[in-house]
């Protein structure tokens, strides 16, 4: 029987942390189960055949000893990888991942800021193999609702948009959702607006991993929820540092794969770990050109400064 109690917690090996933001868990009404979870090879509180075997029934993914599992997980995971889902909403994203043979994500982040956790963080989801093909072992993933490449209708390829998905009303832009997804958001009547716009055209255009990416920004609600998720994931898994990639020489987050992509301990983008330098591994560009790395970095730094001051005054 599904739990209908409103949630603000995220879960790792049965342990929870309250992130002060709406979270719908996989076993709650309206939740989404990860379509294709897998076991992590470096964790051993599950049958080894769950690591890379074809997807099993969801109930087969059980943790034998949650306390030992948690110890193993904290020693294994040190990255939170951010993605755009190239979808209209989180429900749309879930539908797409269900059709795949092996893909999934620990979290979906919807336009209205609702987070969906699809499985216990103990499990692996195949979302970003990285250029060393070991990325999913060390990472937690969040797919954030954003059409990304469809900033301009003539460049759309996945859904063949006949017209631009964003329209301007007065001084504000808003996303026009197809009828099939207008009522799938948890917040009734929610209007999706980009948190920032660029000039008269509205969308952002920057080169990511060597390719020009034109996309609209995420919503204000998504940024607020994501920052709270970062704090919560760090609280559960301290190996994920409260930092993003940052180049002191330029004063910006680099928009290309990192040299230390495998050892970086913190929050980073899919493009930071995967430039397609390994045969069979695609070059990636998410979370794209519009993502506000500066906002996230400042929020993380402010929280850490507040914590240090609080500790010093005790």
Automatic annotation (TrEMBL):
Pfam family, one: Amidase_2
UniProt cross-references to InterPro entries, sorted A to Z: Amidase/PGRP_sf, Amidase_domain
Domain named N-acetylmuramoyl-L-alanine amidase: residues: 75-154
Superkingdom of the organism of origin: Bacteria
One of the record's GO molecular function terms: N-acetylmuramoyl-L-alanine amidase activity
Stated name of the protein: Putative N-acetylmuramyl-L-alanine amidase, negative regulator of AmpC, AmpD
GO annotation (BP), single: peptidoglycan catabolic process
Organism: Nitrospina gracilis (strain 3/211)
